[in-house]
Amino acid sequence: MSRPMGDSHKRFLQTLMSNGIISRLQAKALHRHCCETHGAHYSPDRLDEFIDVINAQLQPMFMHIRKGMSEEDGLQYYALVNMAETDITRMSSDYADNELELFRKTMDLIVDSENGTASSTDILNCADSLQSKKLKKKETENVLNKFVQDKWLNEKQGEYTLSTRCIIEMEQYMRMIYQDLIKMCYVCHNVAFQSQICENPTCGIKMHLPCVARYFKGRSDPHCPSCNDFWTHEIPEIQQSQSQGSQSQHSSAVPAPNPTPSTSSARRSRRS
């Protein structure tokens, strides 16, 4: 018989639901806050066990707190996932039909790109071909801003990427829809969009930018971990995320917005 949720678990779940997604550092801080607030036993190394108690109670409702990795900084995040809904219909209560269609087309562009980005220009062009109801330029911009505010997309300098929340919640849907386009990161084995690809046409493995940075750290002559060909891409630096994490632990449980990627867009034709 599963252990019932206490008030500390309920507060943790409510906070996660209101924010959509939180980082592991924020989850640790929230775990401590919830336990101390409700007088529950607190063990700093038992966050996952604490979440397991919640997940056991959520299972009959087809809900699950799932852990995933940010493609931007390589940090872990937690999001509440509706396991009964495997596609974009889970967003239907918050968006109109033409807004959902725009999101699908945006996702198409991002998944179909070389490095997991879609330009605002390409997305605006998609808005002219919506089947449900066309959106004017200003309307499209407002909808895109809403997607960013609701943490479904990230944006920087006119380039849009799938947010960590989107990847965690929509992974099953994307694996089904984009079977031939989806690739896993060779290092962490998670879905890879913002990534580098081995130039060897017989290899073509993908690695997330943070995974590339960690794997090739200190190596002056980087070679592909799969085929051993020279890795031609510029090796990114490991981001100093610890300072952000320490600030999160001293702040309230409400997480800061997700970091936004800065990779440039490079298109390739969609395979049929």
Order of helices and strands: HEHHEEHEHHEEHEEEEHH
3D shape: globular
What is the CA-CA span between the terminal residues? 48 Å
Provide a count of the helices.
9
Mean pLDDT: 86
Structural class: alpha+beta
| Number of DSSP strand runs | 10
Q: What is the C-alpha radius of gyration, as a whole number of Å?
A: 20 Å
How is the main sheet built? 3 strands, antiparallel
> What helical percentage do the residues reach?
25-40%
Low-confidence stretches: 242-272
Strand order, main sheet: write it out. 1-3-2
How much beta, percentage-wise?
5-15%
Question: How is this structure best summarized?
Answer:
With 272 residues, the chain is an alpha+beta fold. It has helices at 7-19, 24-37, 47-58, 97-112, 120-127, 137-149, 164-177, 209-215, 242-250; strands spanning 21-23, 63-69, 76-82, 118-119, 153-156, 159-162, 183-184, 191-192, 195-197, 206-208. The N and C termini lie far apart (48 Å).
